[in-house]
Amino acid sequence: MEEEIKKLVHNYFNDEEIDNISIFEKRIIVTLSEKASASPNVEKMTKELEELAEGRRVFVVFTADRETPSLQPQDDKWYVPSVKKIIAVASGKGGVGKSTTAVNLALALSRLGYKTAVFDADIYGPSVPTMLGFANAPGITYDGKHIEPFEAFGLKAMSIGSMIDKDTPLIWRGAKACGAIQQLFNDTNWGDIDVMVVDMPPGTGDIQITLSQKMKIDEAVIVSTPQDIALIDAIKGVNMFKQVGVKIAGIVENMSYYLCEKCGTRADIFGHAGAKAAAAKMGETFLGEIPLHITIRENADRGTPIVYTNPNSEYAQAYLKIAEQL
User: Fold this and answer.
1) Superfamily, domain 83-325
2) Which CATH class is domain 2-63?
3) How far apart are CA 238 and CA 182, in angstroms?
4) What is the pLDDT at residue 136?
5) Is 196 helix (H, G, I), strand (E, B) or coil?
6) Cα–Cα distance between 326 and 319 in angstroms, integer?
7) How confident is the model at residue 165 (pLDDT cuts 50, 70, 90)?
8) 3-state DSSP helix/strand/coil percent for the chain, to nearest 5?
9) What is the pTM of this model?
């Protein structure tokens, strides 16, 4: 079957036009270069693939190589008219709880009465499908052109993680990765959205710069843990957004402290108030601190975020206070 699928694709397009053919248990993804998008063979190939796919869903994705962007604001931004505001949740490094913060912050904004969406732009480590409970659900399209967002806990959401097998790494360079993110962002049928929270990839590399320039981001929230090594990278993240003309909404200190449930003793495992001090030094707003607690982690892993499942807990209230400031 795999060889038949590959042969079919090569019957319509040459090696230069085919970037990748991925065959999973429930879906087939054919990645073509942008120049192939205008070919009438796309529709013919897609129909034949669907007949051959034995129940698998067929997706055709187009990517385009782009020059590495300069660190300057750009006018040709991606634009979805029905999305009023975009807030990026970013971090200078991985492992600081950025995705957990993004999801719970989106839920907190929804509880405040805003029509809220989450867009998972972390193409190499998409966590949103797991955290919102749609990790194993296939994407749906009604017109063959637009993808319907997933709906969970009152949020609309989309992630590249819903389009690929969860155990398969995406080995794409920056330009192709950005092309895939752009297509997913533009082709999702978002509907009317007051606030979209974008879970950015960690770091300050080429993909992060391109997304910051192109996505028409209104403000950025930087997530950091208290220790110095994380704060150094958080400061780099702040400076990157400033250089591309994105306003900084503020800094969140995640895993700020731990309270023992048995004795009530507080432990500042990673130090404390480092993010608050860094924000003051840079003249930025300190939005608040999120404690380190197993309940937050367990709910994220189960796809039942703490702000939804236990909104009156002190942990959920920490996210709600940050959302109120935003």
Assistant:
1) P-loop containing nucleotide triphosphate hydrolases (3.40.50.300)
2) alpha beta
3) 23
4) 74
5) strand
6) 11
7) low
8) 35, 25, 40
9) 0.74
